[in-house]
Amino acid sequence: IDLEARLHRAVEQDELRVYFQPQVDIATGRIVGAEALVRWLDPKEGLIPPSRFIPVAESTGLIADVGEWVLRHTCLQGKKWIDAGLPPLTLAVNISPRQFLRSDIGDTVARILQETGFPPTCLELELTESALMEREQDVVTLLNRLRDIGVRLAIDDFGTGYSSLTYLKRFPLDVLKIDKGFIDGIPHRKDDGAIAAAIVAMGQTLGFKVLAEGVEHEGQLAFLQSTGCNMYQGFLRSPPVPADTFRELLVHAH
Ligand code: G
Ligand code: G
Ligand code: MN
Ligand code: NA
């Protein structure tokens, strides 16, 4: 049977898993949140990465079911951590363009927050530049509805899309995530460093928090610290890990 049919069954039979990658406050070194990243635990094939099934889900429409599963599962996990007395965290969930542009995304998010009891202010939605470049008026309406619900909004892979900087002043956003592609060349490539530093300065002037993605080395972190960048994610601290492992990271770090 094909991947689409298998994925459909995987959602129904709870074969998906959510991994969590720490998001670290650069000034304090503390874990302040996590990005939720889906995996598919196939009984025969083992762990299947999202790069293999998210595009299929997007092109077949299954993304609505997969996306809703990830959102609900992440909020349930976040609520468990709050109830267990862990320090407050922001959990970031990736929303694919097709999932975002459905007119009922606001209703879906509001319903899941209500059902799970997870606080809206602890949930961040990661959107891509390409999703925001679609029908602009619809996008403004969708973003404002999400903003009214109280969730935070982040731009993922910032700097890589066919984007226009005008959307930064038009859309209600909270976080810019600098794409790993700019972080890779730091500190030896002057151009990458200059672009990262410029994104931090511009983003912060516009009132956003800025997060650097894919930080792997101390040299990158030291450079980002010098720019005043707010947060980072990357293998330097931890790859995405299962919930229990993430909880251990939290407990040991605090
Ligand atoms: O987790 P990994 O490091 O393999 O992620 C690969 C890609 O899959 C990333 O671009 C990430 O944004 C995407 N991805 C991971 N989880 C989700 C998800 O729950 N929803 C969507 N839409 N994309 C995801
Ligand atoms: O949603 P997004 O496209 O930003 O997904 C993040 C992706 O980056 C995931 O696939 C995650 O596993 C990966 N990732 C996170 N940190 C690092 C890192 O330090 N190095 C590398 N190579 N990949 C990373
Ligand atoms: Mn992301
Ligand atoms: Na990214």
From TrEMBL:
The chain holds residues 514 to 767 of 770 of the full protein. It comes from Noviherbaspirillum denitrificans. This is Diguanylate cyclase. Residues 1-254 form the EAL domain.
